[in-house]
């Protein structure tokens, strides 16, 4: 197995979805690493970005919206790579969550459902595709890099009240496994963070925050555990109560995926 790539190895880290919650906390924690990387905090809310920029000289900000056309997203990614040629890590943290009740199909807003799919999965698959030429070029120069997806424990064991969210996270998890194995012979490493229910603004629009706040993992605790995994170079980082789910349903799946790919390659 190749040597792990840790977040401390990275010189320039882009955090997409850094204006709140998990993304903001991870961006600030990465900025505090002794290795002193440049951190590019990306998101849609300019006021939040301006506030982040005051947190440190090595925090750069970028107005970035994943819900734009395919061509606009490609152009945005290419602009980032051109402006920051040292970019060697991207964390895909942006996400949305909506309640859907399929017992009342007339209430299912398909525009919102498809927007959730795009934010949580399709746009990330597109961005990975657009970032990879830059990272594969680094690989050809023997320089390691890191792509990190943030999925969810709900991608392992779904919560039926947010069915589309769970499906998008399961899809992103599956894609991450495949990317890890497809890129295993390059210096582009792929890691995945599996959060549990974490203190955040994700649920505010649902009206469920008061109830969930009695159960969620404090953001500080999530950030500490996630960063420990990133600093070790773990490729799968289940946090909090997700560790038990991961042990039951996911342990060994990455290796089985690699074996399947090896069998497929031999058959070609």
UniProtKB/TrEMBL annotation:
Cellular component, GO, one term: endoplasmic reticulum
Family of this protein: Belongs to the short-chain dehydrogenases/reductases (SDR) family.
Oxidoreductase among keywords: yes
Coiled-coil intervals: none
Record flagged with keyword Protein biosynthesis: no
Pfam families, A to Z: adh_short (PF00106)
Gene3D superfamilies the record matches: NAD(P)-binding Rossmann-like Domain (3.40.50.720)
Protein name: NAD(P)-binding protein
PROSITE patterns in UniProt: ADH_SHORT
